[in-house]
Amino acid sequence: xxxxxxxxxxxxxxxxxxxxxxxxxxxxxxxxxDKQTSLTPRPKKVCYFCETKTIPSYTDxxxxxxxxxxxxxxxxxxxxxxxxxxxxxxxxxxxxARHLALMPFVPSI
Length: 109
Description:
By secondary structure, this protein is an all-alpha fold. It is elongated and about 100 Å long. It has helices spanning about 5-10, 25-40, 50, 60-65, 75-80, 85-100. The protein has 6 helices and no strands. The chain has a domain at about 55-100: CATH 4.10.640.10.
């Protein structure tokens, strides 16, 4: 009996490997939990016009430029933090200023 070798000594159990990702099985399971816990809620943006108690005007080109990208596109509400009411007014006033040649339709080269 001393000469016999146990089957468990010679054959290792096959475990699924994530060699291409370079991550162990336990780390792969925990990586999703780490990502969910590390996300913290961002503070909500406050509308510039509600905060200053002003309204957008086509004559105030300096303020309206804050709501345009470097390519002269009107920036979305999600990025500016403006409320719906003022975002619609911003869009209207920028378009008005463009027609009066106070603001560019396209960026200068």
